Amino acid sequence: MKMINVVNGPQDVSRIILGCMRMPALNTQEAADLIKCAFELGVNFFDHATCYGNGDAESRFGDALPLTGINREDIIIQSKCGLHFDRREFDWSRDDILKSVDESLSRLKTDYLDALLLHRPDLIFEPEEVAEAFDTLHKAGKVKYFGVSNVTPGELMLLKKFVKQPLVFNQLQFSLDQTQLIDSAMYLNNTTTDRSTDRDNGLIDYCRLNDITIQAWSPLQIGMFKGCFVDHPDYPELNKALGRIGEKYGVSKSAAAIAWILRHPAKMQAIAGTMNPDHLRDICDASKVDLTHNEWYELYLASGKFLP
Ligand SMILES: NC(=O)c1ccc[n+]([C@@H]2O[C@H](COP(=O)([O-])OP(=O)(O)OC[C@H]3O[C@@H](n4cnc5c(N)ncnc54)[C@H](OP(=O)(O)O)[C@@H]3O)[C@@H](O)[C@H]2O)c1
């Protein structure tokens, strides 16, 4: 497994994270088997959120971990808060953050989160309240490291003005299908394609300049949860290129797609959401692959882009 020392954050953590959003579909024993399989493959980082299955993902994980024989301190448990589909709002208020963490800890059956991320921007957030909540959580030993998800440079700067702890992660959508983080640099000033639009104010460069590790969510999904592009009939060119490159390195197409994310010099982590141990084994083979400069471009172009 490729590992990373996160600047100002946890050390020696896996570049591939197991995303637990889909864990409510498993029973406790199946969840334990998957967590054990991940750990044996070198994955020591697990991503949660309070909203995944309305708390069921965290509960399933909390029930399953003791069945695995894995020591709590040997893994990184990250959760996210602030996203309330049930209440139809996003909430970064002090009280909501504190309450969410207490509920996560109780569902996960642990005393601390290694990392807490704010899931999606609360449009009316008050950075002073976030700062107060993070201080309280840090001082109480309930959260070691902090970060955000789906957050722009402006929002990060606003938070950083008040929050004392370093913000070490930004979890963002990035995959061979969803390349909007990097497209605008490729097509700068080009009026023939919508991909030239800078939608996030140079977020990828901002994260790199400020030592914020990007965690790529939904690395194999078409759009927002429209299915996996690997072997999908709508992606013939991409699958041909993934197949060719996968064959060269003796790995699956899924591994080649994840290797494409890991090859980016931002040193991102990739959050795999599979609940199938065989698929996870395939995906983790990405760690054996170092794509060449030219192969990285071959996959980017095969995903439907052109050289300007
Ligand atoms: N911060 C955010 O806003 C945000 C948003 C969404 C997700 N996330 C995080 O990102 C994680 C991953 O998201 P995701 O589940 O959408 O990611 P994903 O890994 O891109 O997609 C997982 C889906 O692809 C399928 N799949 C994987 N390998 C396959 C293969 N070889 N052939 C066919 N199907 C395959 C899986 O089915 P099987 O289970 O059958 O393999 C599963 O349905 C989540 O668990 C969560 O932690 C964060």
Describe this structure in words.
The chain is of the alpha/beta class and 308 residues long. The protein has one domain: NADP-dependent oxidoreductase domain (TIM Barrel), CATH 3.20.20. Helices cover 38% and strands 16% of the residues. The protein contains eleven helices and twelve strands. The protein has helices at residues 28-40, 56-64, 94-108, 127-139, 153-162, 180-186, 203-209, 236-249, 253-262, 277-284, 293-302; strands spanning 3-4, 13-14, 16-19, 45-47, 76-81, 83-84, 89-90, 113-118, 143-149, 167-173, 213-217, 269-272. Helix 2 (56-64) links the parallel strand 4 and strand 5. Helix 1 packs across helix 2. Bound molecules: NADP nicotinamide-adenine-dinucleotide phosphate. The site of NADP nicotinamide-adenine-dinucleotide phosphate has 25 residues, from strand 12 and helix 10.
Helix and strand layout, with pairings?
Blueprint: E1 3-4, E2 13-14, E3 16-19, H1 28-40, E4 45-47, H2 56-64, E5 76-81, E6 83-84, E7 89-90, H3 94-108, E8 113-118, H4 127-139, E9 143-149, H5 153-162, E10 167-173, H6 180-186, H7 203-209, E11 213-217, H8 236-249, H9 253-262, E12 269-272, H10 277-284, H11 293-302
Parallel strand pairs: 3-4, 3-12, 4-5, 5-8, 8-9, 9-10, 10-11, 11-12
Antiparallel strand pairs: 1-2, 6-7
This protein binds NADP nicotinamide-adenine-dinucleotide phosphate (NAP).
Residues 19-22, 47, 149-150, 171, 217-221, 225, 228, 230, 254, 271-276, 279, 282 line the site of NADP nicotinamide-adenine-dinucleotide phosphate.
